[in-house]
Amino acid sequence: MFDVQRAAIEGSQQLVERSFATRGTVSRMALTGVKSQESLQRQQLELAQAMAHGTVGTMTAMVPGGNQDPIQEGIDESFGQLKTTHAEFYDVLERELERDVESVDELSAEFTDAMETSTDRLLESSRELEGQTVENVGELASQLRDQLERTRELQDELETQLEHRTEDVEKLLETQADQIDAIQEQLEERAEQARDAGATSIPIDSDRALEGIDGIGTTTSERLSEAGITSVDDLTETDPETVAEAAEVSTSQAREWIDQAEA
């Protein structure tokens, strides 16, 4: 792109220089042509004057006693004035053309110098701009690469965080599912107790299974058994924290079971 611009600038300069050179050539050719035309016309005037003298001489010779001198003098006077006017006209014309040639040469020289200076500046500016553009393009490409790398790092970080959060959500769902199971067991136990309308308080035999405790169902009993708590007596001899951890319930719930077992 910059090479094309520089070629266009140099071409414009050459075109202007050729234009001035052409005008100067035309002016010089016009001056040469005027001089040739002036010489030819002067010769034609002299020839016409000679022919006029010859004609007058012939006619006077045919007239007896004719005097041709006054006529010849009139012819010379007329042609003399015509030659003077002709010479003055071409002198003025030649001076104008010579001044035009000189003006064209001076203007061409001045403009050519100014054009060369301006063209050199334009070419230098074009080279500087090209260098800056190449440098800026390289810098921009580097910035884009850095930005792409940061984007990839951010994407990897987000994917890692998403994986961790997914694991946390899965664990939370499992915990909630266990809690729902425990609540469901408690509801089932209480529903069984509600069906026994006549029973307000059922003494708990220490030899009975853990399912006799309000809120302990089959699943919870199995969890307690795995921890070595298989009977009501075992329950009363175990601290609430251990019971809560084994049954995967709150400490307050475990303490309530122990209170029932001790009643």
UniProtKB/TrEMBL annotation:
Organism phylogeny: Archaea, Methanobacteriati, Methanobacteriota, Stenosarchaea group, Halobacteria
Keyword field contains Glycosyltransferase: no
InterPro entries attached to this UniProt entry: DNA_repair_Rad51/TF_NusA_a-hlx
Domain of life (superkingdom): Archaea
Sections of the chain in a coiled coil: 134-197
Gene Ontology MF term list: nucleotide binding
Chain spans, region Disordered: 211-263
SUPFAM superfamilies according to UniProt: Apolipoprotein A-I, Rad51 N-terminal domain-like
Keyword annotations: Coiled coil
Record protein name field: Helix-hairpin-helix domain-containing protein
Pfam assignment, any one: HHH_5
